[in-house]
């Protein structure tokens, strides 16, 4: 019993000491709500930010929200910070949300988003012209299944991700049928199954992600995606159609609730300074998704190994 | 000629088939009527229902106000209020008191120890249901602890407890109100029927708008889902209180309130527990979907595991949900049996202080022995690699056979059937359904059924609705083809009844997500995988009702048949099946309902039906589309429900049996 009381007391002491040791006092005790979505790099980056903010004594809450459904949450102050906003899918939505004046662009993370048609390397033998997109016109049959033959079968992302693959197939005259997976996991499940059997497959893959680390393969080279490609029919290989190019690639940005800047200016500063690169995050994602480690442990390990880096982001709290 | 006419009179079906053929001939020749052909739905008939619903909801959630308070302020504060007990329960059961994160993380208080909670549970099970139930609880909790699922199982349990309390309270309240006033009952029955059939994804977006993100929105969505059975059970329970009991109460001079709380409700308790049991099961059914909008727990584990294609890990976490469901189910059932057995046989319950002593004793000990707080990771078991390798093995060695099966079904059965349904002229479908309803019941049902069909047509989701019908029909056929013979077999061998009910419970509570991914690996994304997932889920009621129907055939009838010299096959064909007919039809009805409720989840493997529309609406937060497409699924469900019930009633009337 003595020991029991002792341990309660000692834990209380730890708490008071840790608070006392803090040179920095946060501007507000109001909880900062970090948005968490369902893909792994976002989970890790958010946990890293959680570790940093908590270290400086901020009260942090994580709130699960959907990638595309986040904007009303940010505009109404239900969500305060998001670590990842992908140009490839969210550019227009972010821009229109910023226009309301209630949402801030907190700068790029340094990670580069890319998503496009992707195939395992062994498919190169069966379709030698790859990665040039023109090769797909001739060897679509190599990617065919009974229900799409003689056309090839291209496995696209969930319908809700957009991506304009139907338009692309028509504009580039690709003899492919676009089949939509229902979820991210559905995409990779089919890739894994095909990969184990060295069976034909071509599908939508995005980076940074663990897929390109776990499976050998490469992206198809389409004409580069430019603003003209999607707006001007005469641009590109097909003079009468838009979308005769690949998918867009680009930045991954941080965003925040505008009012929060006045509540926790220093925390917003740390978020602005946050940087991450593709190689590091792919490695962390691999540890979580393939090796099965916990997100918290992986993020904590990164924080231990890179303390100098993230301390430098928090210059406003160093006084 | 007269003979033929009489024949037609007695079999309205014949008239009906003729009518359908004529209509089909007319419409397939594209005869135009009122300037449009009958084949497709004319543009002007499609109303912007989704926009209306979306705008109305946005207005309600953002601008509407009661007095000076906006609705949103009220709902948000309510969400805060609900959040409080969830957090408290979570601290107590799962996480303890933790502050900060990362370098600043401190465990101030541990959660209640798993050893204390599980011992108390085993003791309570022993008191309620004897040695058998105690063993079940012991094995179940041991599974959760040793497989490292305990902490998240407690998070799930915390939200299920909250949800059950709220749903049971609210259900009781609505049930009592319905029991007292017939008008309320009619209204609540209509609302509950729609609520039960509208897919949960449809009301996730509105709840997010009103209650914000996080566990309270998930909780409220679950409550909405689990509410209807409690309301039904309450009304039924109160109605079945014997009049003598009520009269005794009145003679004793009870007021209306005393009568309700002191006489009627206690007398109705056994049946109320049945409703409570349903609420528990349905909340656990929702665990995984709730975790998609922020409830965490085992559902989230399943989602995470499946994301990294760790099918075995997903299966383990999913079995954790099954374990919770089975334990809670058996305990509530045992409690219900105790109640109905009356007070005479009661074994004295151990005193409450004994439970508290066990729980807090073990928790106290956990300060000295940290393994009693959180079971050490190194000592956890896992069977996940085995499952993952099994799937890989099947994939590598049997893929060709499975691919052949898939291709054959798709190319020769499913796709042609789908195309046929999609091509069916709208007017033909409308009149056919109306005709069937008229023949089975009368003009009133015909009007209702045609109204609902027209609703789907004007909503602009006709094609998606037909694809839903095709997917549902295919999976129901499979579920019945497998479930019926299986049910017949089980019904004839009573020894298998208990294991079979465990299997059925597992099928119904194991999150479908888990078999969705192996299905995708072996059968690719698309309708065939969806079909398998839906059939797996819908098979349970097909089996259950078959067993129930066959076992409740009166012994006297069977004996009479045997004495008349029937062979076992004849008894089965001419006595058992006809007597069980109405129950079998109700089973078919439930199978269809289950299949329809799975459509939304099947959307996750890339179908193109109403479920997909609802799912897309959810991910894009398009309130209007989600609600209207969801109501489309509800309309299909209600149409098939009312037609089958009318058919069952007719059969029942003809046979003079009760289901």
TrEMBL record, chain A:
Classification via InterPro entries: ABC_Gly_betaine_transp_sub-bd
Residues spanning the signal sequence: 1-23
Residues in ABC-type glycine betaine transport system substrate-binding domain copies: 31-304
SUPFAM superfamilies: Periplasmic binding protein-like II
Keywords from the UniProt entry: Signal
Protein name: ABC transporter substrate-binding protein
Annotated organism of origin: Amphritea pacifica
Taxon lineage: Bacteria, Pseudomonadati, Pseudomonadota, Gammaproteobacteria, Oceanospirillales
UniProtKB/TrEMBL annotation, chain B:
Keywords: Cell membrane, Membrane, Transmembrane, Transmembrane helix, Transport
Transmembrane segments: 108-126, 133-150, 156-178, 190-211, 279-299, 353-375, 420-440, 468-490, 502-522, 528-547, 583-606, 626-644
Locations listed in the record: Cell membrane
Residues of the ABC transmembrane type-1 domain: 153-332, 465-644
Major subcellular location class: membrane
Coiled coil: none
CDD domains in the record: TM_PBP2 (cd06261)
InterPro entries with a match to the protein in the record: MetI-like, MetI-like_sf
Transport keyword on record: yes
Bilayer disposition of the protein: Multi-pass membrane protein
Similarity section: Belongs to the binding-protein-dependent transport system permease family.
PANTHER family: GLYCINE BETAINE/PROLINE BETAINE TRANSPORT SYSTEM PERMEASE PROTEIN PROW, GLYCINE BETAINE_PROLINE BETAINE TRANSPORT SYSTEM PERMEASE PROTEIN PROW
Protein name as it appears in the record: ABC transporter permease subunit
Origin species: Amphritea pacifica
Phylogenetic classification of the source organism: Bacteria, Pseudomonadati, Pseudomonadota, Gammaproteobacteria, Oceanospirillales
